[in-house]
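Example 3.2
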Amino acid sequence: MPAGRGRPWPGAGWKRLEPFPFAEAGPFTGVSRDPEALGLSYYRRPDGSFVALALFGAHCEGAPGQAHGGSILTALDEALGAAAWNAGFSVLTARLTTQFRRPVPLGSLMLVETELRGRRLRLVRAAGRLLGADGRVYASAEGSFFELDQTGRRRLFGPAR
């Protein structure tokens, strides 16, 4: 998802990342290169923060002309999980709480900012915001992600690539 065509992202100095290190793991939605689906790409900004770009294609439609809440939730879930994987935590979502603040128009390129908030036992906490090019928050989420041990990681995702 290149910048240009009036899109502010990705910014100068952003480094493209593939946060899922296992052969069978990958972004649930980003596997499809279908431009009509939800597309996700991941980056590290020069300040070290982990972000995702989410493009809401026509197949994301809920209300006419608007992205379905499930696609918005999916973008936040994937980005928060990817941030944890990128930080070295092999996780699955345990709990995700989402607040929807305004409708997301189809065709929108949105920024997901992520923040890892800590780890206790085998739970990694993360939060994120879905931002429009106008800088407004369209949705936010907080989640707890269950950290897999090495056996669970191999069983679910296969050998490391």
